[in-house]
Amino acid sequence: MVLPSEDLAIIALTNAGPIGVPETLTAEFMDLVQYGQVREDWAALYKKAFAPLNELAGSLVGKQSPANPAPSRPLNDYVGVYANDYWGPATVTYHDGQLRLSLGPKNQTFDLTHWDGDTFTFTLSTENALPGSISKATFAGDTLNLEYYDADKLGTFTR
Q1: Domain Peptidase S12 Pab87-related C-terminal, which positions (predicted)?
Q2: Each residue of 90-145: pLDDT tens digit?
Q3: Cβ atoms of residues 30 and 3 within 8 Å
Q4: What is the pTM of this model?
Q5: What is the DSSP letter of 107?
Q6: pLDDT (tens digit, 9 = 90+) per residue, 3-47?
Q7: In b/e form, how buried is each residue of 60-95, taking b as 16+ CB within 10 angstroms?
């Protein structure tokens, strides 16, 4: 933050998750400099502003799996390479009774767990998906939709 009239600035650098601490400190500092007191509850404001960045990803987070899920197709039916112009290829393999999904430049691999019918799930923990995040992997014909990668409607892969 910069206060040109006082030839004053403050910057707070961190290597931490986005929770609003440096923003709170710099805003409180500027309040103190300009008004002699902190005039806003900056911590509460920034906590609310950053809350969406700290939520678990996935529409199935916290939900119980169906008590009587519809069966999947034979697991080998899902095997193949699914193309996506934005994310690149996603490869689904079947080995020792387990479907696995591999994708990305680091070839990240995720075990797919049956949820219901042609919908499976996988857990992920990345810079943008906190531990405990769950993505759906939904197969329909020759397509695979990965919920986590579909925020901008770019998460459908085609075999």
Answers
A1: 66-139
A2: 999 999 999 999 998 888 999 999 999 999 999 987 777 777 889 999 999 999 99
A3: yes
A4: 0.74
A5: T
A6: 999 999 999 999 887 889 999 999 999 999 999 999 999 999 999
A7: beeeeeeeeeeebeeeeebebebebeebeebebeee
